[in-house]
Design goal:
The structure is a homodimer. Chain A has about 350 residues and is an alpha+beta fold. The first copy, chain A, folds into 2 domains: about 140 residues, PurM-like, N-terminal domain (60s Ribosomal Protein L30, Chain: A, 2-Layer Sandwich); about 170 residues, Alpha-Beta Complex (Phosphoribosyl-aminoimidazole Synthetase, Chain A, domain 2). Chain A contains 9 helices and 14 strands. Chain A has a 7-stranded mixed beta sheet with strand order 9-11-8-12-10-13-14. The N terminus of chain A is likely disordered.
Amino acid sequence: MGYSQDGLSCPIPHALPARITMQHGGGGRAMQRLIRDLFARHLDNGALQASRDAACLVLAAGRIAFSTDSFVVRPVEFPGGDVGSLAVHGTVNDLAMAGATPKYLSAGFILEEGLPLEVLDRVVRSMREAADRAGVSVVTGDTKVIERVHGDGLIINTSGIGSIDHRLELGPGAVRAGDAILVNGDLGRHGIAVMAARERLEFEPPVVSDSAPLAAVVADLLSAGIRIRGMRDCTRGGLAAALNEIAGDAGLTFEVDERAIPVSEQVRGACEILGLNPFHVACEGRFLAVVAEDDADRALRILESHAVSATHPAAIGRVLPRGTVPVQLRSAIGVTRVLEQPSGEQLPRIC
Amino acid sequence: MGYSQDGLSCPIPHALPARITMQHGGGGRAMQRLIRDLFARHLDNGALQASRDAACLVLAAGRIAFSTDSFVVRPVEFPGGDVGSLAVHGTVNDLAMAGATPKYLSAGFILEEGLPLEVLDRVVRSMREAADRAGVSVVTGDTKVIERVHGDGLIINTSGIGSIDHRLELGPGAVRAGDAILVNGDLGRHGIAVMAARERLEFEPPVVSDSAPLAAVVADLLSAGIRIRGMRDCTRGGLAAALNEIAGDAGLTFEVDERAIPVSEQVRGACEILGLNPFHVACEGRFLAVVAEDDADRALRILESHAVSATHPAAIGRVLPRGTVPVQLRSAIGVTRVLEQPSGEQLPRIC
């Protein structure tokens, strides 16, 4: 069914021109070919195939989570990932943090004129692989082209729908004094991996991004009945932002132990060279979970059972009654200082 | 509840700095303030307030539509709208074209360093007003900052969820020979309005964008039992792209009558000056509906009853059995020629 609208219906990738042009965003034949030969080929699934303006989906009744995130990372490919897998993980993780099971993603591609088609091809393939691993489908999409700046830019917005199948009320209102504060692994690898790729810094061995989907481990925590009070992924602003946001919203004080916070020697060294605070560096596969004190050990064992959190899950602190600041950091020698919300951007364009 | 995390909790808009900086995308205090003092202030609603990573929503069981679109328009403000209202209308209309009732939107803002805050403030306010008029809520959002190019860029991705409450199967498979082809108004005003604003062309009177929400008129067509076979909004690639896509997918031939296609004198004149084909120019409040022949008159009366389609709704042609081309245009003197899918982009960055 359907006409060959251009006299050429050859779906061979090498029939694509080598770089993105303004024509690819124009709604005409060039865009149709790009969608058919690249996006549809890699992301192929029934809902996407059937969708022109919108995907039609069937959902069971109940609570859903809905989230959106745009991913602006330079370079678009880095050790341990690329903007395609990152865009899947980021939105899957936002849904997981709301206690939802991620189901469907949209993908809005904003392509810079001059972007090599082979880069786009790799990124979209990586996106599909990440979606498969995370158990979600990309069901609807859009493509726009913006004028050339460096000729290598590729921004992806993903929005996601997840189903909420439990009855827990997660959120700052549920946090109480005495709760334990956990992280699922060592911090800062994503930000340092991207920065190193951008600045052509060589670490030996290379720092590899922690970008990964968190939905499966969160689902296991929930189904094991861990009393999770709140979760936050440590993305922009890193651990410091995640701690400050939950503590600030809860109106309580979080105390964390500097020695207990896992940071690899490599990331620590890179941060010293670059003048960065590792607690401010973005991750894309790390999250903070505030859980009932009595459930902390059991939660750590569940974290250890998943590859994404097997290496260095840790209990890093506890919730105190409201003090004078949202987050305090206890140092190795027992001195307590404020761990502030980062003021702005330490590492631009890494997530 | 909550700390004042920066010692300054003054929500007065003039406390905002005058332009967007990279700090506003960093996940720290500058971003928190932007979210609180601008996005949350204008878009305020319960779901958005409660959402950090994702909005939690309750949906009735059944079919939903899910759609995404990124809006890249230069200038961001133009006669009859701006990128904020456009981003609401575009996704609301994509959902409406799928026969869905739009409910929830996400908003992903990609801000160019240097963007004046007052422009962002106007655009977000306009977005809220458009959402209110269209009966949707912006329930979750994200903000990123990209490096300066012209210092005036603002891209908005909106994704949307709508509920499908009818049992019609819309789509190219439902189209049959004999069906009538309708449009809801005169074509090309949006593209010409944006182009005129960009190139500082003055038309007297000015050409005003047709950007508008189509969900209410589509809902009326559906509830009146009009046998709609398929709908497509005439956005990128204009009427020609919409006709070619439906006809191509259906594997039938659409014949349209050039004299019946409504185009204002102004748009016709502007297209002549600019060397454009008005059937290729994007609209954001115009759609093509293929309906059962017997329902065409009743459908036109419903179109006339809505402001968005009151002026020049028209039956422009009919569906023929499969011929040699997807779309043929019958001219004033009775000559038939091919109306091709546009090849690329006639008017960049207008939607």
